[in-house]
Write a structure and sequence with these properties.
The structure holds two protein chains of two kinds.
Chain A (H helix, E strand, L loop, with lengths): L1 E8 L4 E6 L5 H16 L8 E3 L10 E7 L2 E7 L5 H19 L4 H6 L1 H9 L2 E2 L2 E2 L4 H33 L12 H4 L11
Chain B lengths: L1 H11 L5 H10 L4 H17 L3 H16 L8 H8 L4 H14 L11 H8 L4 H14 L2 H14 L5 H17 L4 H11 L5 H17 L8 H10 L3 H14 L4 H17 L3 H11 L3 H9 L3 H17 L1 H5 L2 H7 L5 H14 L5 H14 L3 H20 L5 H11 L8 H14 L4 H13 L1 H4 L10 H12 L7 H8 L9 H24 L3 H14 L1 H4 L4 H22 L5 H6 L12 H4 L18 H4 L25 H17 L10 H6 L15 H5 L6 H30 L4 H5 L62 H5 L3 H22 L37 E2 L5 E2 L15 H13 L14 E5 L3 E9 L6 E10 L8 E6 L4 E3 L11 E2 L9 E10 L8 E8 L2 E5 L4 E2 L5 E2 L5 H9 L4 E8 L5 H12 L2 E6 L2 E8 L4 E8 L3 E8 L2 H16 L2
Antiparallel strand pairs in B: 1-12, 2-11, 3-4, 4-5, 5-9, 6-8, 6-10, 7-9, 10-11, 13-16, 14-18, 15-16, 16-17, 17-18
Helix pairs in contact in B: 2-3, 3-4, 4-5, 4-6, 5-6, 6-8, 7-9, 8-10, 9-10, 10-11, 10-12, 12-14, 13-14, 14-16, 15-16, 17-18, 18-21, 20-21, 21-23, 22-23, 24-25, 24-26, 24-40, 25-28, 26-28, 26-29, 28-30, 29-30, 30-31, 30-33, 31-33, 46-47
The chains are: A alpha+beta, B alpha+beta.
């Protein structure tokens, strides 16, 4: 089981928080902070697994994370999950984001947290892995946004236009989170069929 | 219309949307909190509008704020509104918000049940999908129970997208509502072979999760998984299956052999490292392959290699031990995760032989380690390693003490208390070491200034606590007590933390007492007075302490010593009396001792001594652990003590295992060791090291010397042994030649340096022997430990949504013919299985035939669901009597019932008048020989059981032998039979009844969910030549299902206010008895308790075994009584009132 999925940037700002057990908001924030501090002090060339001790309630839990440019993707899992499998899953998730947002960058995650959630819901639900095939995930996510667009129809058009105008002046942040780099880290990285 | 919509959305487009909110927060970095609170106010306004789009937008923004740590549970109701929007766009927003903030405590969650059910059955697959996703996050036991059936239906949906989601959610449902597991399991199993790989993967996922907790229940699925493993190409599924087999193999050893082939194929063919790792992890015999992983330059593989090693270690410790070099190397790794893994491995690798060496290496690491976290980790590991299994691997405790002393040199460690605990533990439990320990501790005290140099931040000063205590408690071993006492009296001591000072003060007196005794015995009165003077001079500094404990102890002791001084001046010998203060020895207490103290009779540990405090105070303070409650890390003291026999047995088992293990490299005589056998070695001079010298040098590592000493000692020991063996060899040459040459040094050969007397822990007298107390009763997965192979029973079907009241509306009269029809079936069955027949006058005739008497049975079956007042049981009774049939009625009192009468009345707080004797026992059946009365009581332990007590009274003059009860179960009620007996077996009555005696039997009946059912019983009684059969039926009244439960008036008022109770009332005229008696009757016959009584009006309360609350208001008029009842179940109430009417009208 996956007990939490956290995405935060190099400064510890949360970009996506998904706990699969109910925790009070302040506890969630504390976990995010502590996880960030644990992950931050590790340099990029050591392993991607981290035993988090009592942070997640026992030695059965592990943090498995990947660092992409400005973002950390952290999965907290128990011993029923395969470590390398989860590592691959993070890669699948990020690549899916990349496809859905066309060259994903931190800004996409910042401004479209809801969409990221919807995509994640096609990968993991209730702490269990739902789908590992990227094409399937992308197809389902796109089908749903299409449905949303048809529902919006005429009435949603003006607000979309306004939103587009507002988005012109976004502060400049590197657009790419360099997904390419990460492939080096796990040799023989397998893609799930 | 369209124009209006556009206009509405133009108004709306100037509302802040999520992007605006994010942008706003980014632009207000300085006053973020203020800006957000502003936004929350806006959101609150937006939520008040009717436009669902505005609401959805607001909820979407709230979801973002939740991520930033804001509590949004106040908007739960609005979230539900958005969830029930018809448009997918909004629905999705609502469900997302719900999945982020709903939980079991959210009270509005019960409002969602119908909405979710609607969405689940929506024609749009994405509506269903979104509802399932949301449900996976916030499913509660109630939702799980109500929706289990709907979700189960979705498991066979036409769209694989829905199927796979439904399958996964089922796991969450199982966790919350374990009863659903058995009914849903067949379908889940089916999904393992679903044509869609996604659904298949989901099913594998769920079953793996289930099997991980209770593997034994899933063994029967092994062939299916085996097939999947060889056919599937999905790596994710394969990994899960392999993990599952990892859990199953220990339970079924044959599985292991079968798995080897496909696993090896996978290992060779796969290119996916993750899969390879899982295979290797499961096979765990490939230690050599693991070495390759660990030696790999990739850090991830190195980590996993070590992880797998630790698993192998548990089963094949020796094969891992050969890689000690590699693991020690990993300790130098720059990656902390890897270092910690390596440390973990070392813990399991130590043996008597290599302990010292490993610890020595670790000590070097401690010195090198920068960063306190890792160093602390090292420290705890060293202590763990040494103390594991009750110090099993320590052969030389002097060495261990000196290691502990060396560890005290660590600065800034948080684990001073750990070291202290070890010192205390060793000193107390190993008697032989006390002298040495005391000398070391005295030295520590002497150098306290080094340890406590920086008190504020230094956890290490905790060791002074242990040092002071050990020196005090075992002061008889102290050589220079004076010096130690002086060290403890130094002014510097007052800078130590309070609790340590307190121990100092207390132990000073112990020291003082022993010095005093020593001086008095040797007649040095001067010296004795000097020491008293010293105490009096120095103690006041503690009296001034700000710490209360220190102050109190110090002033108390100061007075005591002043008194001693007075006596000393009068030349009265006082030492004996002073030392008597500390007489007796403290022994360690076993960790389980407290639990094993048997609870004295009559003591109810769960009862409140005082009224419980209100909830609000305590709850917040409990430290909450995250994700799991079970954080009880078993401390090392809890490790069970292994006695020698057990050890020997395990050793034997291990050797056996190794012998059978083709991968295990067996030890062979090494040429080197034989070389050492040559006598020349004996002449190597043994270097004598003076122990006392290094000990006096503070802060110098001394443990090395113990290592050397120990090595020499072992060497000598071995030489001696070999000598002996040689002698033996000479004697037995030829005979046992081979046997001796096979000798290698194994760890068992190393004898401990000195006799290590580990004092066993004390247990309370008459402790109950049991080891079952380690399990955590709160484990949520325990509920899922369910046998899945048993066929499904009717009662286990998932609750289906239905209109409950429709059935209830039928009047009992219209029900009756129906019931009679039903009754025919059991009757036929009964005939078939009847074993006893009536057979008068003939002895030992066992021929079986169906007897006409069957026809006499009055089978009256009622559908309990509609009318629970008429539970009826039918019993048949057979009697055989050998001798003449004199009829003498003997009237026996029913002691049982009388006792019960008084008890119930006390419950009802009625105490002013003597009450007439009452018995709740009703006549069951009677014939000239026997009379049976019965009573039915709800079972407190189990909410679906009632206990039927039957009293037998023998009215004849002869013995009644071998009575038997035959009970026919009805649809809703069944008797709980002993295991192994079938429905048709009779239950023998476990006694014979002499003439004129009474005795009683209890039967336990289980009722199904809705409050009962009917079953017919049959009592057979046969003896010698005569068979008698007596039919009877049990009337299960409503009162049988009520349990007298006291209720306080405030709780009672709350219950009435809650509003979810049905109401009904009756009025009975012509009541003449006093109100007091009336209440007593209701209390007694209907199991109620009085909540409050005002004049001729009383409120009463009771609870059914299934938790329905029943409240009554009883009012007495001139000649009538009116009863108003409120109950959460209207059927129960109306039946209950009917019964009550009956009772009251007989008054």
């Amino acid at each position: 089981m996956i007990s939490a999925i956290l995405v935060f940037n190099n400064h510890g700002k949360p970009r996506l928080v998904r706990f699969y057990q109910r925790l009070a908001e302040e506890v969630q924030q504390q976990i995010i902070r502590e996880t960030f501090h644990l992950v931050l002090k590790r340099d990029d060339h050591i392993c991607n697994f981290l035993e988090c001790g009592s942070l997640f309630g026992g030695p059965d839990y592990k943090l498995i994370y990947r660092h992409y440019a400005t973002l950390y993707f952290v999965f907290c899992v128990d011993s029923s999950e395969s470590e390398l499998g989860i590592l691959d899953l993070i890669q699948v998730f990020v690549e899916t984001l990349d496809k859905c947002f066309e060259n994903v960058c931190e800004l996409d995650l910042i401004f479209h947290m809801d969409k990221v959630h919807y995509i994640l819901q096609e990968v993991v639900i209730g702490g269990m892995v739902l789908e590992t095939n990227m094409n399937e995930i992308v197809a389902q996510a796109e089908a749903q946004s299409k449905l949303e667009k048809t529902e919006g129809g005429l009435s949603a058009a003006p607000s979309r236009a306004v939103s587009a105008v507002k988005n012109i002046n976004l502060p400049e942040i590197p657009r790419n989170i360099n997904i390419g780099d990460i492939n080096i880290k796990v040799p023989n990285l397998s893609q799930f069929v | 219309m369209a124009l209006k919509m556009v206009k509405g959305s133009i108004d709306r487009m100037f509302d802040k949307n999520l992007q605006d909110l994010v942008r706003g927060i980014r632009n207000h970095k300085e006053d973020e909190a203020k800006y957000i609170s502003q936004c929350i106010d806006e959101i609150k306004q937006e939520l008040k509008q009717d436009n669902i789009a505005v609401k959805a937008n607001a909820v979407c923004k709230l979801t973002y704020l939740q991520m930033l740590g804001y509590d949004i549970s106040w908007a739960a109701f609005n979230i539900i509104e958005v969830m029930s929007a018809s448009k997918f766009t909004f629905k999705r927003i609502g469900y997302l918000a719900a999945s982020q903030c709903f939980h079991e405590g959210t009270d509005v969650i019960m409002l969602t049940t119908n909405q979710i059910r609607k969405d689940l059955s929506s024609p749009n697959q994405y509506d269903t999908g979104v509802a399932l996703t949301g449900l996976s996050c916030f499913v509660t036991p109630d939702l799980a129970r109500d929706l289990a059936n709907d979700i189960m239906t979705l498991m066979s949906h036409t769209k694989p997208y829905i199927r796979k989601k439904a399958v996964l959610i089922m796991y969450k449902v199982f966790l919350k509502y374990p009863e659903s597991l058995r009914p849903a399991f067949p379908r889940l199993k089916e999904k393992l072979e679903d044509p869609d790989p996604g659904v298949q993967s989901a099913a594998v996922n769920v079953i793996c999760e289930l099997a991980r907790r209770n593997p034994k229940n899933y063994l029967s699925l092994a062939p299916l998984f085996f097939k999947l493993m060889t056919s599937s190409t999905n790596n994710w599924v394969l990994i899960k299956i392999i993990k599952l087999f990892g859990a199953l193999t220990p339970l079924e050893p044959r599985l292991g052999k079968k798995l080897i082939e496909p696993l090896t194929n996978l290992i060779h063919s796969t290119s996916a490292m993750s899969l390879l790792y899982e295979c290797v992890n499961t096979v765990i015999l490939c230690v050599q392959k693991l070495r390759i992983l660990i030696e790999d330059s990739d850090q991830n593989l190195k980590y996993l290699g070590l992880l797998a090693m630790s698993k192998i270690l548990k089963t094949h410790p020796k094969s891992v031990q050969s890689h000690k070099d590699l693991i020690l190397q990993c300790l130098d790794d720059k990656d902390e995760s890897i270092r910690l893994r390596a440390l973990d491995l070392l813990y399991g690798m130590v043996s008597k032989k290599n302990l010292m060496e490993i610890v020595k290496k670790l000590m070097i690491h401690v010195d090198k380690a920068e960063g306190t976290t890792y160093r602390d980790e090292l420290l705890t590991k060293i202590i763990d390693i040494c103390s594991q299994s009750n110090y099993q691997y320590i052969t030389n405790f002097e060495w261990y003490i000196s290691i502990l002393v060396e560890l005290t040199r660590l600065e800034g460690t948080r684990h001073g208390h750990l070291i202290a605990a070890q010192m205390l533990d060793v000193a107390i439990r190993v008697k032989a070491i006390r002298k040495f320990a005391v000398s070391q501790m005295a030295m520590l005290l002497d150098n306290a200034h080094l340890i406590a140099s920086n008190t504020q931040r230094n956890g290490i000063c905790e060791v002074l606590y242990a040092a002071a205590w050990i020196c005090g408690e075992f002061s008889e071993h102290l050589e220079e007590a004076n010096q130690t006492l002086e060290a403890m009296l130094r002014p510097k001591v007052t800078t130590l933390p309070g609790h340590i000072q307190a121990v100092y003060v207390q132990n000073m007196v112990k020291l003082y007492a022993s010095i005093l005794q020593q001086k008095e015995q040797s007649g040095e009165k001067e010296a004795a007075q000097e020491i008293t003077q010293l105490m009096i001079e120095r103690l006041p500094q503690f009296v001034q302490s700000a710490d209360l404990e220190v102050q109190e102890r110090a002033s108390c002791i100061l007075q005591l010593i002043k008194y001693i001084q007075k006596l000393q001046i009068k030349e009265v010998p006082v030492a004996e009396e002073v030392i008597a203060l500390f007489a007796g020895e403290l022994n360690p207490v076993a960790p389980k001792a407290q639990k094993k103290v048997p609870v004295p009779e009559g003591l109810d540990l769960d009862a409140w001594i005082n009224e419980p405090p209100s909830d609000s105070e305590s709850e917040d303070e409990k430290p909450k652990t995250i994700f799991h409650d079970e954080e009880q890390r078993p401390s090392r003291h809890k490790q069970p003590e292994i006695d020698e026999e057990e050890l020997a047995r395990r050793r034997e088992a291990r050797k056996q295992e190794q012998a059978n293990n083709p991968f295990y490299i067996k030890s062979s005589p090494s040429p080197q060791k034989r070389y050492q056998d040559t006598p020349g070695v004996e002449h190597i001079p043994v270097v004598q090291i003076d122990l006392s010298v290094p000990l006096k040098v503070p802060g110098m590592p001394m443990s090395d010397q113990y290592v050397k000493l120990e090595e020499e000692r072992r060497h000598k020991q071995k030489l001696e042994k070999d000598k002996k063996k040689k002698k033996q060899k000479k004697e037995k040459r030829g005979k046992h030649h081979r046997h001796n040459s096979l000798h290698t040094e194994s760890e068992e050969d190393i004898a401990p340096a000195h006799h290590v007397d580990i004092i066993t822990e004390e247990m309370p007298e008459n402790a109950l022997p049991s080891d079952e107390d380690d399990k955590d009763p709160n484990d949520p997965y325990k509920a899922l430990d369910i046998d899945l192979d048993k066929p499904l029973a009717d009662s286990e079907k998932l609750p289906v949504q239905r209109h409950r009241n429709a059935e209830n509306l039928k009047s009992p009269d219209s029900e009756a013919p129906l019931a009679e029809k039903k009754s025919k079936k059991p009757k036929k069955k009964e005939k078939k299985h009847k074993e006893k027949e009536r057979d008068k006058g003939k002895k030992k005739e066992k021929e079986k035939k169906v007897v006409e008497e069957e026809e006499e049975k009055k089978v009256i079956l009622q559908d309990m669901r509609s009318k629970s007042s008429k539970h009826k049981k039918k019993k048949h009774k057979k009697e055989k009597e050998e001798k003449s049939k004199d009829k003498k009625k003997s009237k026996k009192k029913h002691h049982h019932s009388e006792e019960e009468a008084t008890e119930s009345v006390q419950n009802g707080t009625l105490d002013d008048e003597p009450l007439p004797p009452m018995s709740s026992y009703r006549l069951l059946a009677e014939n000239p020989y026997i009379k049976m009365t019965y009573d039915i009581q709800g079972n407190l332990q189990n909410d679906s059981q009632v206990t039927v007590s039957v009293i037998f009274e023998n009215k004849s003059t002869s013995f009644l032998k071998s009575m038997e009860l035959n009970v026919l179960d009805s649809l809703n009620t069944k008797m709980l039979r002993p295991e192994g007996s079938s429905v048709h077996d009779g239950i023998p009555v476990p006694f014979q009844l002499p003439p004129g005696m009474t005795s009683f039997v209890s039967l336990i009946c289980a009722c199904s969910v809705d409050g009962g059912g009917t079953s017919s019983c049959c009592l057979g009684n046969d003896e010698g030549s005569t068979h008698e059969k007596l039919d009877f039926k049990l009337h299960f009244s409503c009162a049988s299902y009520l349990i007298t439960t006291p209720c306080y008036s405030d709780a009672f008022a709350k219950l009435l206010e809650s509003g979810d109770l049905h109401m009904s009332s009756i009025k009975v005229d012509g009541i003449s008895i006093s109100f007091q008696h009336l209440l007593a009757k209701i209390c007694f016959h209907h199991h109620f308790s009085v909540v409050e009584r005002v004049d001729s009006c009383a409120s009463m309360y009771s609870r059914s075994i299934q938790g329905h609350h029943v409240c009554l208001l009883v009012k007495k008029g001139e000649n009538s009584v009116s009863v108003d009842g409120k109950c959460s179940d209207s059927t129960l109430l109306s039946n209950l009132l009917d019964e009550m009417k009956e009772t009251l009208s007989t008054c």
